[in-house]
Write a structure and sequence with these properties.
78 residues; alpha+beta; 41% helix
């Protein structure tokens, strides 16, 4: 799932070398994907009214559901 978010994010931004994606497992078993990108690329990651971020979360949840897991996406500034 990390690879999916990384591929999408790197294809959206102007500086793909500044994109970093990490995975953590929370206490309840939820997979937490943390996406960090350059400050100048945050608008591209989030999109108008958050549509791009919402679409990435939807894809992540669809993939997680197929694997019988729970996942969430957290977007950070680096």
């Amino acid at each position: 799932m990390k690879e999916l978010i990384e591929l999408i994010a790197k294809s959206l931004v102007e500086y793909p070398e500044n994109v970093s994606v990490t995975e953590d497992v929370e206490a309840d078993g939820t997979l937490l994907i943390k996406l960090a990108a350059a400050t100048s690329d945050m608008g591209r990651i989030i999109g108008k009214q958050g549509r791009t971020a919402k679409a990435m979360r939807t894809l992540l949840n669809a993939k997680a559901t197929r694997e019988n897991r729970r996942a969430s996406l957290q977007i950070l500034e680096s």
